[in-house]
Amino acid sequence: MRGLAMALCVWGAAAAPAASRASPRGVALMEEARAGTALWAVLQTAEGRVVVSLDGPREAVAAWVGVATGGAPWYSGGAWVARPLFDHTAIRRVIPGLGVALGGAPGWSLPGLADAPTTPGFVRGAVVLAPAIGRGGPRVVLLTANAPWLRAPVVRLGQVVSGLGVVDALAQAPRAADDSPQPAVSLQSVQVFDAPPPGAAR
User: Fold this and answer.
1) Where are the alpha helices (DSSP H) in the chain?
2) Are 88 and 35 a contacting pair, CB within 8 Å?
3) CB-count exposure of residue 200 (10 Å: 0-12, 13-18, 19+)
């Protein structure tokens, strides 16, 4: 596990340029995150719905909200695009004994991550941002077990407040040699709200 922690801390994401076609709603949600407004994310998967309270460091939440909603650009197919990063994708990887990784994209980074405060709470149900490995962007990992050994620059983004059983089901799916679920499990959409969606109450 500690070897995995070291691997997660390999940092290498490039800064993204300004987006010319960013989603106005996504940009507004990023500004709300920077202002400290409470936000929630709803992840709709083929196994069910997961609700996350996004209560992590403001800049980290804003960066993730940007790529999740199309408010900030990321790199795809040789070009910068500003569209929701996770919609209609597949769960990237199951990490046995740790959690489920949604993946990332080349080119997006986390402004202010180096200055983010220490974020305790790497517990079961936490949603964490793990630094880029190689040319990919940071990874989003939904923890299925406590991981107190995780350290900066891994950042806690928020906490699952509904649908932890769905995360467990994803973690128990059969896996291919690269630890991706087999058959593939789709992440149909990620939506971000500035008011509690149904199921958001702890």
Assistant:
1) 2-8, 24-35, 58-69, 164-171
2) no
3) middle
Can you point out the beta strands (E) in the chain? Answer: 39-45, 48-54, 74-76, 79-81, 89-90, 93-95, 99-103, 126-130, 139-143, 155-162, 186-193
Structural domains in the chain, sorted by start: 2-193 (2.40.100.10)
Average pLDDT over residues 66-90: 86
Residue 24's φ and ψ, nearest 5 degrees, are -55, -40
Among the listed residues 154, 8, 146, 129, the one whose alpha carbon sits nearest the alpha carbon of residue 63: 129
What are the pLDDT digits (tens) for 139-165? 899 999 999 998 877 889 999 999 999
> pLDDT tens across 34-61, in order?
999 999 999 999 899 999 999 998 988 9
Stretch 76-103: mean pLDDT, rounded?
86
Question: Of 191, 188, 173, nearest to 96 (Cα)?
Answer: 173
Rg, C-alpha atoms of the chain: 15
Q: At what angle do helices 24-35 and 58-69 cross, to 10 degrees?
A: 170
pLDDT band, very low/low/confident/very high, at 201 (cuts 50, 70, 90): low
Q: Which phi and psi (to 5°) does residue 196 adopt?
A: -60, 120
